[in-house]
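Title: [Solved] long-chain-fatty-acid--CoA ligase 3D structure

Original question kept below for reference.
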Amino acid sequence: MRQSFSSPIKWITYEEVYEKIQQFGSALTTLMKEISMNNFIGIYGKNSPKWVIAQLAGAAYSFVTVPLYSTFGDEAIVHVINETGLKIIVCDTISQACHLNKINSHKLKVFIIMKPDNTFESFKKECSDKVRLFTFEEMLEKGCTNWLPEKVPDGDDLCMILYTSGSLGLPKGVMITNKAYLNAAKLTISLAEENHFSTEDLSHVSFLPLSHTMEQLTMMLAMFSGGRIGFLTDGIESLFDDFRDFKPTFFCSVPRLLVRLYMNFSKKVHSKPIIRKVCQYEINKRMEEQKRGIYRRNGIIDFLFFREFRELLGGRVRAIISGSSPIDRDVLCFIRAVLSCPVSEVYGSTETLGLVCSTMFEDVDAYHVGAISPGVQIKLIDVPEMGIFVSKDQMGEICIRSKSNMLGYYKNQEKTEEVLDSEGFVHTGDVGVWLKNGALKIVDRTKNLFKLSQGEYVAPEKVEQTYLFCNLIQYVYVEGHSLKPYAVAVVKPNFRRLRKEAVDIISKLAKTISSPIEKKCENMKDGELLEEITDAELCTSKEIREFILERMNSIAREKGLKGFELARNIYLTPEPFTVDNGWLTPTMKLARINLRKHFANTIKNLYEEEKSC
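Solution (posted by the thread starter after getting help):
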């Protein structure tokens, strides 16, 4: 951990961490007796050593940890606090504590601040009658003077309540027992062992939210192996700077980050056909070698082009774990070849906690998530409301049973019964199909799939992942309707690239657009015109829409999408897709329910436009 990029990295030993766990746990136990609170502790903030210490102290002293996504909206936060009866929350800053105190009508009793500032004392005086306030360091001191032995929980006791990221409404509290958590950690470690992955000198950069199962299990693998864990110095925007300095040997990723690396490479060689062909030849050659277990980092092409991208990740990455959604084959091959390391695609969910399926390191095929993990059972069932029948379609909803499954949703029996059946299977809501080699392929979420009027099913996530290979777009949301024979889409353009590639169209647009800009443009050159016209004005141009749509669908056809999967009309928005505006979940997935509500009239208009054409 470090305070800034100009500061040296400061490491703490496992012995020091254990001492702090005992101190913090002792202080929590003392507080619990003083204010008559339940044994739930909320953690609200960015990944940090203190975040981890608070969680592990909770586990050592039989507390139930309730992690909160730092990007939860007020409604979701109030829902979680009220549902769990939280009285104590560990949070990053005083401003967070002030806000939490305000929106919860002063129901919280204790705030523990991990990053106090000069407003700490004034806030402490202001809340002295209602709320107790401690810095993290004060809690450690309190634990020193009130040291208590650890209170080891039973395996069937609750370990955590992991709230879903809320992409489909208010978050639900997934109850995880200690036994389930340890079983999931064991499966993660067994994955490394089965793939002969050396955990010697293991180093990891924690950047996915610790309130997400994927980062929890990655952290456990690192800790069980005695590895080093680094945390982001600033934000996700400077992730590659942290990779450069922390030099991880493995990391967990979401496909979007890997696509970003691939697009940077493609951009570099796009205008150099000969170099592009030579690099592709080398990638294909390395893929054949990797089928035989050969991973090499030598040769002139490696020195001139590939090494640069390895250095972006610190130059020491030996393996990558990717989850959340499928990876495109071209991206997977690129990452494997250029970084010269295996990539394992994994599948799981908050409700199933552990690695349900994973690909082996030597498996270089794409578009599946590998074989079932040991001790896990999977069955596919019909989805009659969508007209999906396993016997007819060879696909169905994925249902999972394992020792890592949740107990249910906290204080929500109705939702629990919808997801957890009488045989102990969790109904994931994902549609899957078994391949001939025994691997499981994820088609899409049942809630995401839509059926067109002519009977074809469209998996929007697959289409969106394909469209992202178009360098003119930054984000895309695909939607369809059962009464329509085609899909439509909402697109956030890559305006910088668009201005470079659509000079003629934009120049013409600037001279004809009906706005105050028209007079300004009379005596301007094309270069000046490009700077004068706004992103919002670009989005209103029919010519620009057609230009982007044609490029999107051209790339989609090259990637093998069928005609019925292509969007026939698009809407351009200058607004970014972010977690803050609710269009993305904290794990960078599209928040479809929010997008569907926000763009409901837009989608309707897109269909009306196409109908009138």
